[in-house]
TrEMBL record:
TM annotation in the entry: none
Keyword Ion transport found: no
Binding-site residues, Ca(2+) 1: 86, 89, 103, 105, 107, 116
Pfam families membership: peroxidase
Annotated residues for binding of heme b: 220
Binding site residues for Ca(2+) 2: 221, 270, 273, 278
Name of the molecule in the record: Peroxidase
A GO CC term attached to the entry: extracellular region
Keyword terms: Calcium, Disulfide bond, Heme, Hydrogen peroxide, Iron, Metal-binding, Oxidoreductase, Peroxidase, Pyrrolidone carboxylic acid, Secreted, Signal
Disulfide bonds: 54-142, 87-104, 148-345, 227-258
GO molecular function list: heme binding; lactoperoxidase activity; metal ion binding
Residue stretches making up the Plant heme peroxidase family profile domain: 44-349
Signal peptide interval: 1-36
Length: 350
């Protein structure tokens, strides 16, 4: 077979390859649209999935997470982003859809030379040690029962809930851990430079819609961005060239943290209340104070801009965020007998 692919009929082989890719792309689009509907219904998860098998799970996750957040206020943002980046890995390659489903499956936690965490967009992702700390305690209480994927989803919720001392959203559980982690599968992560259609498409690829995009972007009400994610909006080489979608005053604020095109360091995503999970992100976007180009892009589309306006109301924001987090937490999960339950979240088959 291999000899035939390498042999004289190069034209035939090329045609066969082209056909295969066309079929794969069409299939990918079909799977993406089908997924959009699927996320509205439960993929086999449940509230209190571990009620009998690990009754102390909720309190262990909350206790460990809250203790760590108490001494490190950067953690809610880190854990929320970690969960998001776990869910947004790519399924659309020629073979993968049939053999491995990849979504919220804790694959981002795996350590190996080419794992997801080595991909460019994941280099600034953190919070792994919190998941390890929780997992150690959960394994002591209920060995071999609770997946790392569920612990990650719960820790993201509890890290944000520290501010409110109550959960902002509920987490369905019953996910299992996926064995595949490849940096090359992180291509569907949205780029901050992609523009409105680009980020919308990235969400559509994971079965999420415009409402989800606008609601979940509100996560940028906490946390930081590296200067490299922002400086293309401020400089063109050595010259100052400010993105017209940025207010002059806010551009100045950003430049005080990132003074030139290659500055190291970080800026707060929400210049006003960077540690508060509130709806000020949306006011920022309307006031040309969205930090990333992708934040500013939400005000460039009429339907999105109307939603941004609505979500400046904190009650509406919390409700919308909660609904969309539940949908995001369902993206291509492994349930039943698929995947595995890892004892160590960083190691397959452990
Ligand atoms: C709309 C598409 C999105 C884009 C383009 C995007 C892009 C980014 C970028 C570039 C950063 C800064 C990374 C760095 O420079 O080091 C960031 C940070 C962050 N993102 Fe997003 N993101 C998006 C959606 C989301 C979603 C859906 C969530 C969660 C539900 C999220 C949560 C966060 C958080 C919390 C941070 C701060 C992390 C920290 O402080 O450690 N983002 N995002």
């Amino acid at each position: 077979m291999g000899a035939r692919w390498r042999g004289g009929d190069a034209g035939g082989a090329a045609a066969a390859t082209a056909w295969w890719w066309v079929a794969a792309v069409v299939l990918c689009h079909l799977l993406s649209s089908a997924r959009a509907g699927l996320l509205e219904t439960n993929p086999g998860l449940a509230y209190n999935f571990y009620q009998k098998s690990c009754p102390s799970l909720d309190s262990i996750v909350r206790q460990v997470t809250w203790a760590q957040v108490a001494s490190n206020p950067a953690l809610p943002a880190r854990l929320l982003r970690l969960h998001f980046h776990d869910c947004f890995v790519q399924t659309c390659t020629a073979l993968v859809p049939f053999f491995f489903v990849q979504g919220c499956d804790a694959s981002i936690l795996l350590d190996n030379a080419q794992s997801e965490k080595t991909a460019g967009p994941n280099l600034s992702v953190g919070g792994y040690e919190v998941i390890d700390a929780i997992k150690t305690q959960v394994e002591q209480a209920c060995p071999g029962v609770v997946s790392c994927a569920d612990i990650l989803a719960m820790a993201a919720r509890d890290a944000v809930s520290y501010q409110f001392k109550a959960s902002l959203w509920q987490v369905e559980t019953g996910r299992r851990d996926g064995p595949v982690s490849l940096a090359s599968n992180t291509g569907t992560l949205p780029s901050p430079f992609a523009g409105f259609n680009g980020i919308l498409q990235s969400f559509a690829n994971r079965g999420l819609n415009l409402t989800d995009l606008v609601a979940l972007s509100g996560a940028h009400t906490i946390g930081v961005a590296s200067c490299s994610s922002v400086t293309p909006r401020l400089f063109n080489g050595n010259a100052t060239q400010v993105d017209p979608l940025l207010s002059a005053a806010y551009a100045k604020t950003l430049m005080s943290s990132c003074p030139n095109a290659t500055a190291p360091g970080t800026v707060n995503l929400d210049g006003g209340t960077p540690f508060k999970f509130d709806s000020s992100y949306y006011t920022n976007v309307l006031n040309k104070q969205g930090t990333l180009a992708s934040d500013a892009a939400l005000a460039q589309n009429a339907a999105a801009a109307q939603m941004v306006q609505d979500l400046t109301n904190p009650i509406k924001f919390y409700a919308a965020f909660s609904m969309s987090m539940k949908k995001m937490g369902r993206v291509d999960v492994l349930t039943g007998t698929k995947g595995e339950i890892r004892k160590q979240c960083r190691k397959v088959g452990s």
